[in-house]
Design brief:
binds ligand 2P0, Alpha-Beta Plaits, globular, alpha+beta
């Protein structure tokens, strides 16, 4: 069985592990899946059971700056605050970076990450985080890898990160190879400037169970999980057709159905898993009421209580009336 270091060695092949740039900064957007990734066929390489499809969130994402420092250990500053070695995030980040350093763990780095989205609120911060890390390493070592290669490397940090190398719509094709070289993001051509995504933040608290753990329990124990791959296949096909025809209703219906199917599948796991709170259920109901009132508004929801609301530019005013504090993203803003 292959591990991450084997895959990295295949991609980097003859590339140098000598530092090329002492200081630099990169950015990667967060992404929200309209057709979800939930379950792995290989947990080591983050290879998924199904394909998935996302939309990137333009200016919401991770700014990653690095600097070579003369020190005996790496430093991390997260959103302006120093994070020490005993912190989980520090350990996860640098154990990932160390996979790329080969035998040479030095020189040390000072990494500064500024996230424009709440960390660990089910808003895909690990996706933009790991995508920005691989972009940063590419700049640090001067590898000049393709975005497809960076997508494969980002997946090793966090599955959904492989979709954060591009703006717009991205499909993560699940691939069939054991080494995962065919499991990466593919950008789609559709540009839809009228599309809006509202972030309805119910809670920015850390989730009670990581999505990594939750998807493993769901796959192992939920009787609904056997239905998940065929549900994804049909939702994904509907979403892609909706994108081709700019059919918003069809996009919204398939995306919301896919999110609900994922949440119901994990609810049926043992032990039962839910990311819902009374407020998120209430918010879902408000959106359903808006639709009964003939406003085309849909939601999707990830591993947290926060809802991401899909609507078109022409309905912005009506949506804001009900959700006045909603932060509105224009995924195709210039
Ligand atoms: C997604 N999520 O497609 C789905 C929907 C959450 C709900 O990808 O274990 O942090 O690092 O591969 O990518 C969150 O899972 O999990 C996620 P790992 P990841 O966006």
């Amino acid at each position: 069985m292959l591990n991450k270091v084997d895959v990295i060695a295949r991609i980097l092949a003859e590339k140098s592990r000598d530092i090329c740039l002492e200081k630099g900064a990169v950015y990667a957007p967060a992404n929200i899946a309209l057709c979800k990734y939930w379950g792995k066929r290989d947990a080591q390489l983050n290879l998924p059971v199904t394909p998935s499809l996302s939309i990137s969130l333009a200016e919401k994402g991770s700014h990653f700056a690095f600097e070579v420092i003369d020190a005996d250990k790496d430093r991390l500053t997260l959103n302006g605050k120093t994070v020490t070695e005993d912190n989980d995030f520090y350990q996860r980040l640098f154990s990932f970076i160390n996979l790329f350093r080969g035998v040479k763990a030095f020189p040390c780095l000072h990494v500064r990450i500024n996230s424009t989205i709440p960390i660990a609120a089910g808003l895909a911060s690990s996706a933009s985080g790991f995508a920005s890390v691989v972009k940063g390493l590419d700049a640090l070592y001067g590898w000049q890898l393709t975005r497809s290669e960076l997508s494969i490397l980002a997946r090793l940090g966090s599955g959904s990160a492989c979709r954060s190398l591009w703006s717009g719509f991205v499909e993560w094709q699940q691939g069939i190879r054991d080494d995962g070289m065919d499991s990466l993001g593919i950008p789609l051509k559709t540009i839809w400037p009228q599309l809006r995504i509202g972030l309805w933040i119910i809670s920015s608290e850390k989730k009670t169970i990581s999505s990594r753990e939750a998807m493993a329990i769901t796959k192992q124990t939920s009787p609904f999980y056997t239905l998940w791959p065929q549900q994804v296949a049909s939702d994904l096909a509907e979403i892609k057709t909706a994108l081709t025809h700019k059919d918003f209703i069809s996009l919204g219906e398939a995306s919301e159905r896919n999110a609900l199917f994922m949440h119901e599948t994990m609810l049926m796991a043992t032990p039962s898993i839910t990311y819902n709170t009374p407020q998120s259920i209430e918010c879902r109901k408000q959106i359903w009421q808006l639709r009964r009132d003939h406003l085309p508004v849909y939601f999707t929801q990830d591993a947290g209580p926060n809802l991401k609301v899909l609507f078109l530019e022409e309905n912005t005013r009506d949506v804001l009336q009900l959700f006045p504090q909603m932060e509105i993203i224009q995924p195709f803003a210039k």
